[in-house]
Structure formats: C-alpha cells, structure tokens
Amino acid sequence: MNQTSAERLAQHFHGFTYARVSDATRHAVKRLLLDYLGVALAGSQSGSGRIGREFARRQAGVAEATLIGGGPAVPAVNASFANAISSHSIELDDIDVLALFHFSPPVYSAALAVGEAVGASGEQLITALAAGCEMMERVSRAANPSLRNRGYHTTPTAGVFGATIAAALLMKLTPEQIVSALGLAGAQASGLMEMYGPSMQKRFNPGPTARNGVTAAQMASLGFTGAATIFDGERGFLRAFTDKHDVGALVEALDAPYELLIEFKPYSCARPIHNAIDCALAIRKQTVPDLLAIEHIVMERHPDWAHYHQNKTPETYHEAQVSLPYSVAIALEEGAALFDQYRNDKLKREGVLHAAQVMEFRAEPSLPRGVSCRMTMIMKDGSSYVAQVDDPKGSIGNPMSDDELRAKFDSLARPVIGDAGAARLADAVAAVEASNVQALMQLTARA
C-alpha cells in the first residue's frame, strides 16, 4: 500500500537526529534562537505581549514552562501561546524566502515550551527546531502562492505543522503518533490575512498556532488518532486551503540534506517594506533632507507587492508597521526604523506626514525580484535622488552578520533583562548544546 504524505513525513522526522542536522543548519537555527529570544523579550513588554502573558497566567494549571519576559511558570500549551504572541508583537521576527512567513513564533515557541516541560537537552532542542522549520517550509512550498493569494496567513497555516513536528520530536512520539499529530494539526490550521489595521489582530495569529501544535502532539501522545490523509485527502489541507498546490513538494528529496534559508529583520515593520527603507537610507547617505522640502517621491515596486502597504495616515503603531509611506518618511527623518521609530507619538509629525502624502506608487514589472523597489525623491529645488534595492538588509543576498545579529539582540534584550542578563542569555544560546532548555529559559525573566 502506498504511504500518504503524512506517513512519509512521520518516518522522515522520527529518524531525525542531531547528527543528521548539518553544521550550516545548526548555525542557522542557533542564530535564529538568539534573534527569537531578543525579539520575544522586547515584544513581551508591548501591549499585545503583556495581554498574552496575562491570559496565560489566568489559565493556571501545571507549572511547566516559562513566560518570556516575566510571570509564573504555566502549562506548556499556554506558554507557547503567549510567547508566540510576544515574538510577533514588534515586527522584528525572522522570515523565509518564498512566502515571507515567520518560522520562529510558531516553531520556536512550541519547542521551547515543550522542551522545558520534558527536560530536553540543548542538542534535542536544536534537532527539534531544525525539523520544525523544515516541516513548516515544506508545507509552504506545497501550498504557496495560492495559499497566500486566497487570503490565508502562511505563518499560522503552515506553522501549525512545524510546531507540531518540533513538539513531537521533543516528546519522542512514535511514527504512528506523529502521523496522528499531523492530522490533528491540520484540523486546527487557521489564520487569515485580514489582520492589518489599528488593531492587534496580526500579533495574535501565531499564538493559537504554537498552542495548537503542542496540543496536537500531546493528544497524539495520549492515543488520540488523526487522519493520515490530512495533506492528500479530497478534503485535506491542500485542497481546502489552496486553488493550486504541489503535494510532491511536501516529500521532495526527503533523504537529501535540507537547506534551511532564514532571513532576519533589521527594521521593525513588514518585510516587503524593508527594500523601500533601504532605498530611503541609501538616499539619506547622499543627503539628509528637510522632509517639508520634498516635492514628490515615486516608489516603484515589483507587481507582486506594488499594491500593498500604501496607508499614508496610520493611526497606531500597528498600522504604521505595515505602512510603507510612514516607514520611508521616518527612515528619512531619523535614519533608522526600529521599534522606537514606530511610537504613536511620532505618527503625526508634520514632515513625516508631508513625505508620506507626496508619495506615488507605481508597479514596475522590470524590477528583478518580488520585493524589489526603486525610489526617486524629487526636491522642491529641482534636485533628485534615486536608489534601487533588490536584496534588503538581512536577506540571503545581503545577510546580517553574527555581530549585527548580536547588536540587534542586545538592543532588544538589555532594556528587559539588563546588560548582564542579556550577556548571560547570549552566552547560553552560543553553548546551548552543552546545556538544556530549562537552564536557557530561566534566563528570560525580566530583571
């Protein structure tokens, strides 16, 4: 009898060991672990992060896992929920290359919570993180771009399968239990792109995803069975969530080394806006403009993203983080686009409002990449400046170095756990294979 995709994937991941994880993947996973913890620490202190932690605290239950940023230990399902929200609350989490989804909120939040609950070693954590990220990307490759084009948010819809695999490995599920866990994960797949605007909606999506992945693995471990046909079935995930899909991408080259491509964010906003910010910063190196002296800005974008992120008058920082006009204007004014640049009290500055209002968007199919951007700034005195960016900072083509990632981590972690605490946590990540998840997570409490 032919195996289903879920059965083949279960066999593949059941045999996943630390020795099978390449040196390149180990390095990538640890870079992301440092980045995730810094982003989650800072996000835990945001409005949405605080609410997520408070919700988890109110559920009570067995003290199994740490709430990043402070609070009592809570059940793993609730810690994964709150920590996933924290890690997605300031728009500085990682991204993949194909769909621009975020690996770490669902996968890392689930793995760290379960790893702490079961007393996992650092090597077991690295193995589970690598497996969870691979699983998440395999689902995305099978389902996108149709998944995203139909209005589903890839981070939660694909992420629930990654979170499930990470949790399943740490719980040492059998192949049969992993099949069931994947089926139960598919039953909980959800997440809509109707999430932009002044609300906290976007920050919420990874929370249920991480929690649902942990739930799927826990239920399967107790003997609850799930559908082995969750991917291939007539009413399975791929047919339900997409108009066009490639089921073969789920299991392609299972025996070959998997190249995990992770990109990082230097700016606190939606990833497709980063190219435009890099254009603004490149122009700022030529001239530091008086924003009120700008006559016109032409923003040419690849058609893939040309009609997104055009809000010129964001009312909250949530809206500003998905506003290209605001992001470019504040980058021109302050030379940066970190979380501090998106404070609500900066949204109505006269120069920023003016620069945003004089921006015109154009679709330009000749640009080489989906996120490519070319910006032309014309001043009232007739001078003009042009910059084009195809590979934004932090991308595979223009990566952030280890030192740059550490500087980002320090800037996010130090205000929460102090300089010494941030140094201890960074050192613990670097040596995580020789330690364990419990020791690591104890270092994430607020100073």
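That was protein one. Protein two is written in the same sequence-then-structure order:
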Amino acid sequence: MKPVSISDTSLPGQIWNHAAQLDNIPVISTRNLVPPGARAVFIAPHPGDEVVTCGGLLQLLSALGHPLQLISITDGSASHPGSRQWSEKRLSVFRPQESVEALRRLGLPMHSLKWIRGGFTDNALNEREAELAQFIARYLRADDVVFTTWSEDGHPDQAAVGRAAARAADSVGATFNEVPVWAWHRPARDHTHIPWHRARKLRLDTWTVARKSHATHAYATQLDGDPAIGLAPLIPPVLLERMRLPYEIVFV
C-alpha cells in the first residue's frame, strides 16, 4: 500500500466514522456478490491491498469453495525510498514472505491459490497503464468477478491499477468491482465524492474480522516506517482501527 497523509484525517471527522450514508448502504450477500461456482480475482497494486480491501471476502469465498486468483502487480520493494533500514533489496526479500504469512493467517488454501506476480515497480504504474491493462487481461475470463482498488481513491498506483483493471475486465466481459482504501480517511466534508449509489456492504462476523486484523499485522515492514528519515508507517494506526469494522464496502 501507499502512505497517506493523516495530518488532518487523524482527527475524528473522517468519512468512515462520520458519514451518515454509511448506515444506509444496502447489504449484499457473498453469493450475490460472487455467484456460485464463479472465480474471484483480486488485483493488488501493493502487498497488503488484498487484505485491507477484501480480507473478509477472501475468507468467506474460500469457505464456500470458490476458486480464487490473486494478481500482485508490484512487490512493494520501492516503498521506503531513501531508507537504509528498509532498502529495496532487503524489502524484495521480506515483502513476499509477509504476503505469504498474511494469506496463511486468513486461512486461505495456499496449495490451490493461483497467485500471479506482475513484477512491476511501485511508484511508477501511471507510466505503464496500457501495459498493465494488457497484463491483467491475460489472466481474466469472461465469467470472473474482479476486485481491485478504487480508481478514485487518491493514490497514483492504485488509481492506475483501478483504471487498467477496469479496461481489462471490460475487454473480456468480466464483472468488475472496486474497493476504496484511503477514501474513508478523508475529511467528512469530502463524502460527496463517494459513489454511494454503487456501494454495497458485506457483513463480517467477529472471527472473520479478527483473522483479517491478524493478517494485516503480518506486514511488519509497513507497520514501522523509518523514523531515521521521517517516514511514517505505511499502514497507520487509523487504518488498523478501521480494519476492526464488522463489514467491508464494495463499489459494484
């Protein structure tokens, strides 16, 4: 994932805990979101995006026996520019290990999970959007249900992947869904930018929420940052707090 400035969004008035519309979002069941027998494809711009966006849904679909495919666009190794503690070379080793551990904590069947690693460089996806769309389309089928980060979430890499994934899904006829990450941590006054008419709420039980939170904590390199160069954690406490909500919201 990418860092977010929380200079003012760390204050109470954020969309996720102050927007009245949140209470009125229609509830959707797992079966209505992903029809029986359909394959669900999760496209993560950076390590951890798949857990933060859909960690609960991944568990529910796995329990129902749905085939799952994860496409990791980058390995996140360029997330700490200028850091001696977390150099790109060191992160290229740690990040894949963290991702495996996070998915294991979700209880996913690692032996049967189809996992595609794109090898793209993070912080530079805008420049390769057309190539991204072609790459993603290579792994999609017409009957897939696709999930990725919202193209209007506010971060260049996530926006590029959102747009590229939308193009790829459209080119093969797959069902396309987006999931916001940082949009909820904007000031409550920005709620008008949220496409509430597309929002659907997937309810999660206590155990599913606990496993999702536990999986998020597997990304140790993103929880610490690097104080020596003033780099804040890529997963700030405010995001960890939201991970404990008993639902996930998807834009259908």
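The chain has one domain: 33-251. Keep this in mind for the problem set.
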